[in-house]
Write the structure tokens for this entry.
Amino acid sequence: MKKVLIHSDGGCHGNPGPGGWAAVLRFGRHLREIRGGVAATTNNRMELQAAIEALSMLKEACEVDFHTDSEYVRHGISQWIHGWKRNGWRTSSKAPVKNADLWQRLDELGARHHIHWHWVKGHAGNADNECCDALVQQAIAEVKSAHLPAALAGALEAFRAQAM
């Protein structure tokens, strides 16, 4: 099985607001950096999207050391998800799981790999985490420059309406 090292990050300007995600994938001497963004989202959705996009890049089953600065992602995928699935994607208090669409996709993608989930402190000098953060900021800037302020406001209004 190939061994891959992944770092991922996600963020928003405002929460919710314009968001970006990024990942750095390493396999031997190979390096791949990916990023993307959306006009209106939350920080947690971007953290999940970063993990999804990174795992989507893997074309075959791999052993993955996955580093995230999001305890939400690490705890969610390694601990909480088992109860959510058992409870029909509901929390212990019977509320629907937030971001269930992304959790389900991450679970689906992760099933084909052997993943070791690691938490890394953000903004603490880890080179790949710092690279991801810079890529996230670039993605957010690209989203903001691609939309007029009125379009961003409309996207945010639609996102908030959908979330309710």
About this structure: The radius of gyration is 16 Å. The beta strands are 2-12, 17-27, 30-41, 62-68, 114-119.
